[in-house]
Amino acid sequence: MSLEDAAKEVDAAFTRENLKGMSFEASYAGATSFLRRRYSKDLTGVDLTVTGIPFDCATTNRPGTRFGPRAIREASALQVYDPPYGWGVNPMTDIAMTDYGDLAFDYGKVADLPARIEEHVRGILDSGAAVLTLGGDHSISHPVIRAHAEKWGPVSLVQFDAHSDTWADDDMSRIDHGTMFYKAVKQGVVAPERSVQLGIRTVNPDTLGVNILDAPSIHESRAESIAAKVKRIIGDNPVYLSFDIDALDPAFAPGTGTPVSGGLSSAQALAILRALAGINIVGMDVVEVSPPYDTTGATAIAAAHVAMELLCLWTFRHRDQG
Length: 322
Hints:
The chain is α/β, with parallel strands linked by helices. The chain has a single domain (3-318), classed as Arginase, Chain A (3-Layer(aba) Sandwich), CATH 3.40.800.10. 32% of the residues lie in helices and 13% in strands. Strands 2-1-3-8-7-4-5-6 form an eight-stranded parallel β-sheet, with helices on both faces. Strand 4, helix 7 (180-186) and strand 5 (196-198) form a beta-alpha-beta unit. It is globular, with a radius of gyration of 18 Å. The two termini are 25 Å apart. The model has no long low-confidence stretch (mean pLDDT 94).
């Protein structure tokens, strides 16, 4: 597409015909689909789709992540003019990608939501498409992982986070963004011995066997060394990568519900993600972006860049297999 033709493009989120290709709409105008991909519930011929789950009723501190998917989509418009930096792949041109929109749910029936999320994601996976999920608080990851484990078996969880989210909670009906991975391990949908949590900087005596690369150890290491450790642990097991934006220090991502000082810089996180190229990633999410606590939009911008890195990881691994 020439720049002249691109200048005539109007709301590609609705009018785009080719599921591959760059976009040159003004970043400040038009519908805010993720990376200007077409909004569609039709998954025919789609390699990967993006969906949002705007839920934040499981937070222990500040709410607001219900606005996360919209903010991340808006911030992603800044990345559609150029291929992602530091990669030999470009999800915008190498794979057929759409925006599936957000999960619709009754906010008055919170207890029904996990099953709705699992059904929603299962439907996407059954079509043959992969999915990138935008949160929402971190509790949404549990039913999303359950849907992936139904297809792939117990997955390796690679989790970027300030918190382990494996605090004990044997009431499987509770919805809590700090206990969902305890439940995922206990339910057998996550293989703890082949899972890694990166950036942890809060105390939880029982890690359930999950490997921890805490924030201080990451600060003392190179990205390549950290990635090599992760790869040794997960092997070629199917990986679900969950990125809680509070893995980043509040200096880089203030817009989140439970910020913890001493976290990763955005540069560190992106470098580690790039060094993970080749892992068998089958699912992914970016969660806990709470726009009301960041008037600059920096947190959503960081999340959109993380989301692009996750897409690059998936494209790097899968583009020649579809």
